[in-house]
Write a structure and sequence with these properties.
Number of strands: 0
Radius of gyration: 14 Å
Order of helices and strands: HHHHHHHH
Distance between the termini: 35 Å
CATH superfamily: TerB-like
Oligomer: single chain
Largest sheet: none
CATH class: Mainly Alpha
Strand content: under 5%
Helix content: over 70%
Number of helices: 8
Amino acid sequence: MFERLKSILHTALGDAVAEPRAPEQLVATAAAMLLLEIAWSDQDIVEEELESTRRALEEIFDLGAKQAAAIVTAARREHGRSISMYPHTRAVNDALTPDEKQTLLIACWRLALADTRIDRHEEYTIRRIADLLHLSHDDFIAAKLAAKADG
């Protein structure tokens, strides 16, 4: 699975991604796919959602702005070929700690709030992601409250 993500990332980005960070960047791409799944869930992707995704990648994976933007671009291209969230959640589950997954869940809520309203499809998608990341309902609610407090 990592080899497929690595291949997609290198095809889309060429030399824009430094090889020594490739495993983290593959996880960052998986996280970007999950975040963008929320943006796509209401059928209305706005620039604020893309910016929220980029900022989340910078924060969670300690990436530079150019690197995060390149990963978002690659994830957007990959979305059309993706048939399931499972490979992406598996990559995240394999690589991130529970606290890091909670941070990602907060980023999911921030993204849903980026256009100033939480669509029911966005909330459903975040709930699915939380379940696939093995996060509890309490974690789901705590992340939502944290994101609202930030906003």
